[in-house]
Design a protein that fits this description.
Nitrilase/N-carbamoyl-D-aminoacid amidohydrolase; alpha+beta; disordered C terminus; six-stranded mixed beta sheet
Amino acid sequence: MLGGVHAMLLVLAFPPVFLPVFALLLPLPGLVATRLAGPSLRLGLAYGLGTLPGWAIVHLFLLDITAVGYPFVALILSLYAALFVWLARGAMRSVPWLLAAPLAWSAMELLKGSILFDGYPWHLTAQPLVATPLAPAMKLVGVYGLGLLVAFFWAALLSRERWSLRGARFLAPLALALLVVVAAPLSRLIHSGAPGPLVGGSGIAVVQTNVPQDNKIAWTIDERRADFDDFLRLTREAAAEDPALIVWPETMFPGIALDPESLAALRDASLFYADGAPVTFFADELRRVQREIGVPMLVGAIAYDGFELDVTPEGVRFESDAEYNSAILIEGGEPQAARYDKIHLTPFGEVMPYISWSDWLESRLLSVGAPGMSFSLSEGQKPTVFESSGLRFATPICFEATMSSVCRTLVYEGGERRADALIQLTNDGWFGRWPGGREFHLLMARCRAVELGVPIVRAANTGISGVVTAEGAVTRRLDAFSAGVLLTGPLEAGAPTLYGRVVGDWPAWIALAGTFAALAASFRRKKVKEPVP
């Protein structure tokens, strides 16, 4: 029953329903479950399986991507709920429940969100709270830290400890209310100088493309030509508004490659399409248009290291040392050498955790679970920051904007902020017709904006493109399934945050270490109590 309550809260708290108040209640059923008597293995399984319907509902978008994998994803996520119960029950043998249960909750969220299977930080407790007065707390302790505080809040109210009955039940709501009041002012104490404008006038122009995902997977040359013409038409419309930068979404460049080295190799090969156009046609035309409009462009494209062509009587084969999902800046009609290569590949979307080491095993699983897809990408090696039109910005690609640690690495270095804005390039065509996935992807970008104190511009194929302020508010957006141009207008800088400069995800890592320390102590205590034969 308690697992079913958790499932209901999950559906209510997150998009497309999105009633953030229910996120505050999300740890409650699990905390109650850990107080029940009975074997932890059986209790944990019962609780975890009870959450299964909720996970299935919020992941309905997976049916369009991998109908085979969909039930396994829901099952694995339900087992994380079971894992929480097992961790908490084990830790309770050596530390008080008031400490064990919240630490185990945070440990479970970190394991799910950042560690196991390369991390899947979706549907964490605090994410919907970005739309509540608790949002400024993310500037101090981030999403993981706020989730830990919510769990401690309920643990204090439920605790049976004598001191807790006398004080904590009064202090817990008072502490949470105090956090709402002091979080924003406290976060401003760590920086000097007032935030100012980053970009004025029309701001940044986002070209929202609308290429259906089934077309994108098998993009024919005729479809590429037609879509490219639409992209260029929208680009010219955007340029007429005199923006500081024009942005295309993830991998929307329809050519073979856009990085300078690979383009040089393609030109040297003197290859042509069936209609007589050179294979560098898309790059040549894009360069010409960018030079014509005179506005820098940021384009999502595939890039390579060590790109080579092997021309044989049987055809042409492309080879490379590495292939990347990249963001490339074009200025003066030329793609710049400095590019951003995605540093965290999407688990099960671009890489198979624990499986991609074997090409044979990976291909077999893809042929069953996601026919037509291939995982050939490599991880980028450095968190590039671009500078253009006086703006310093970093470019998380798609899933990376869901990862707190990845975006923090892009924006901060050595405690100092090195990027003043994030521009997210994404292809949300993966979500099909299911609205919850797109809205939730936008919601997580709002969390990154608050945590790091920077505005975020989203350029999304099929939508939702939009502008998120450093306080997490969505000020402009282009809804799904439409092609068009979004102008951000002036972008305002935000203040550096304590989370970005110092704290990071350390609250959750400390919770994980504390949980495993308590488990180790419980095993030791159990061993000591065993009779000596």
